[in-house]
């Protein structure tokens, strides 16, 4: 087995191993490429990490909402319309940040069959921030989202009575074993249905097609070959190899590797249980076994922050 130069471990349990290229590609060798806004694997990992983190570390009340537009036959639903809709969304997000103190959200843009944009979003809401108060939780919930829908309709100039649909992610649903991870994986698949289509045929939205608030942006932790933890991931990979058939991805399509300045020659990626401890003989396990950590990611961050 070839030892990777570096390993990225994501919050949701996704592990990406790669080897660095034999030489650095010069900027002059990089081929020009237009920005494309299609769903791809890196976005999927970011979205899964953010949703999992939001579910695992919720602050207030979690909701899955959908923002929609009323279809009108006098509108051309093309790129210019999607640009306008994203501006509407930016105004809505600014409103919930400034007026409702919502700083934790993750969402995606999707299109209907008629190419009408709509947005799926997970929000961490404090229902006490609404204008109308009520001791009854369900009534307070109704008031809260009625106010959000009213503002969305003001922005979009729609008269749609159900332009904002909401569903709570309940405490009961999160109590089940590994529920946050299972829900995050399900919602990611729901959010990024286009990933089922082969990459060459995926729709290019032409505008930003996903958005994650700053407080839900979770960067992977990097394990370098010089790290004492590198050997542990040989054990983790062996377990994953037995459970899954690992996918080796040759990213570079050109012999001189000029199509991507940051390409990875050989890459393997796989999921492990984000809750699971490595085998007891590993360094990670020995160091963090009796610590109250929830995820493998948190254990690695702890080890990296300590002076060992």
**What's the rounded overall pLDDT mean?**
84
- Characterize the largest beta sheet: strand count, sense, and whether it forms a barrel: 5 strands, antiparallel
The CATH topology of the largest domain is: Alpha-Beta Plaits
Tell me the domain tally: 2
- State the helix count: 8
Key attributes of the depicted protein:
single chain; 308 residues; alpha+beta; Alpha-Beta Plaits; 5-stranded antiparallel β-sheet; 10 strands
Structure description:
- The protein has 308 residues and is α+β, with helices and mostly antiparallel strands.
- It is built from 8 helices and 10 strands.
- β1 (6-9) and β2 (14-18) form a beta hairpin.
How are the SSEs placed, and which strands pair?
Layout (H helix, E strand, L loop, with lengths): L5 E4 L4 E5 L22 H16 L4 E7 L11 H21 L5 E7 L5 E9 L11 H20 L7 E5 L2 H5 L3 H13 L18 E3 L8 E4 L5 H14 L3 E3 L17 E5 L11 H6 L7 H10 L3
Antiparallel strand pairs: 1-2, 1-8, 2-10, 3-5, 3-6, 4-5, 4-7, 9-10
Helix pairs in contact: 1-5, 2-3
Describe this structure in a few short sentences:
The chain is of the alpha+beta class. The chain has helices at residues 41-56, 79-99, 137-156, 171-175, 179-191, 230-243, 283-288, 296-305; strands at 6-9, 14-18, 61-67, 105-111, 117-125, 164-168, 210-212, 221-224, 247-249, 267-271.
